[in-house]
Amino acid sequence: MAVENGSGETRTWKSTLFAHDDVDIFRDTPIRYLGYANEVGEAFKSHVPRTLYYGSYLLASSYCLADSVSKGKHIYEEKTYLPVSLRRRYTVETIAEAAVWQGLASVIIPGFTINRICLASGYVLCRVGRNIPLRAQTWITTVIGLSMIPVIIKPIDRGVDQVMELTLNKLRKVGIVHKP
C-alpha cells in the first residue's frame, strides 16, 4: 500500500522511512546479515552453549537497535527546518517504526520460524530415520535450519512490509503517526 504525498509522488512507509541518497550501511552492505545472527543461533542451538545461543539474539538485537537509532538520527538531522517538538516526534516515530520492522523481520519471526523448522525436522528424523545416529540427526537438523535462512528472508520481509503499511496507514488516518 502506498500514500500519495503533496507532490503527486507515491511513497510507501518504507520509502519514506529509508529514503536516503547515500548508502545505508544497515541495509545496503553485508552488515545487514548481523540481523540474522539469531537464526544461526537457532540452527546451532543443540550444538552450542546457551550463552552463545543467547549471544546470537543479543547480536541481532543490537544490530536492530543500531539501525533504528541511525534512522532516527538521520531524520533529526534532516528536518532542521521543523520546530523542535515536531523534529523530536518524527525522530521518535522513525526510531519506533524501524525498531518494530527490524524486530519483526530480523529477530522475532525468522527466529521463531527457524526454531520451528529445526524442531519439525528433528521430530521427522527421529520418527523416520531411526537407524541414523542421534548425533548425525542433530547435524542434519542444523544444516536444514541453516539452509532455510536464505529461503525465508524475502517472504518475511515482504510480509512485515505489508503489515507495517496497513498498520501505519490506519495510524495516519487517526492522526497518531505523521503523514509522509
TrEMBL record:
<comment type="similarity">
    <text>Belongs to the MTFP1 family.</text>
</comment>
<protein>
    <recommendedName>
        <fullName>Mitochondrial fission process protein 1</fullName>
    </recommendedName>
</protein>
<dbReference type="GO" id="GO:0005739">
    <property type="term" value="C:mitochondrion"/>
</dbReference>
<dbReference type="InterPro" id="IPR019560">
    <property type="entry name" value="Mitochondrial_18_kDa_protein"/>
</dbReference>
<dbReference type="GO" id="GO:0000266">
    <property type="term" value="P:mitochondrial fission"/>
</dbReference>
<dbReference type="Pfam" id="PF10558">
    <property type="entry name" value="MTP18"/>
</dbReference>
